[in-house]
Specification:
The protein is built from ten helices and six strands. With 227 residues, the chain is of the alpha/beta class.
Length: 227
């Protein structure tokens, strides 16, 4: 499988700002395109079109967390060679009924440092990364964050994954306190040919361990080509 371009789909913040370290760590032969979602937009159809507009011939799609369902949709495009999901999901990782407990006012309050480290970054994360994460989330209106989280609870792309005829890799952070092992099991049940690489890191693997993630991705792509 010969690739030249990796399309990077961001997490909940949607700005793409937090994917900078990961893009910078890409192998020289890989060109990266970071997708930026409109900060005022919550429609998955609109966000999907933003991603689709960036596709190139013989590219791979790499979707982080929130963008997993969007990655599944755009990976069906003939130009996409493979799909990589990082600490993501194809159906709601939490009971859908809990969406009714998500209120915008909750997200007007800055996330405490300890919560960022516990849920997203890990205890050993660089303080600069914590500051960057806070800044990226502050760019989103609280109402948009709440709506995107509610959409996560309603996600169901299992049929799309079942019909996807592309190699799939799942990167699993062993210290992810946001998305559980259950999300990988849901994918595996539908696509038993999907591969998983477990990395000893937090939810934000691309930011904390970018080199390790790229190593797993390149190996997967090369193995898929050989197979």
């Amino acid at each position: 499988m010969k690739i030249t371009t990796a399309i990077l789909l961001p997490g909940l913040d949607g700005t793409g700002d937090l994917l900078g370290p990961f893009a910078a760590a890409a192998p020289e032969r890989i060109r990266t395109i970071v997708v930026n979602y409109p900060t005022s937009e919550t429609s998955l159809a609109v966000l999907e079109q933003c991603a689709r507009d960036k596709l190139t011939n013989r590219c791979i799609v790499i979707a982080e967390s929130f963008s997993g369902p969007i990655g599944v949709r755009v990976a069906a495009d003939d130009r996409v060679q493979a799909l990589i999901l990082c600490n993501s999901f194809i159906s709601s990782p939490i009971l859908p009924a809990l969406r009714h407990l998500v209120f915008a006012p909750f997200f007007t309050i800055p996330i405490p440092e300890f919560a960022l480290r516990f849920f997203l970054l890990g205890r050993q994360a660089d303080p600069m990364l914590s500051e960057s994460a806070q800044h990226a989330l502050r760019r989103l209106p609280a109402s948009v964050i709440a709506k995107r989280i509610r959409q996560v609870f309603q996600t169901d792309e299992r049929n799309a994954v079942r019909s996807l005829r592309k190699p799939v890799l799942y990167l699993r952070g062993l210290r992810d306190n946001v998305v559980s092992e259950r999300s990988w099991r849901a994918l595996e049940a539908i696509r038993p040919d999907a591969e998983i690489v477990k990395i000893p890191g937090p939810h934000m693997l691309f930011q904390v361990l970018p080199v390790e993630c790229w190593r797993a991705i390149i190996k997967f792509v090369e193995t898929s080509a050989a197979g």
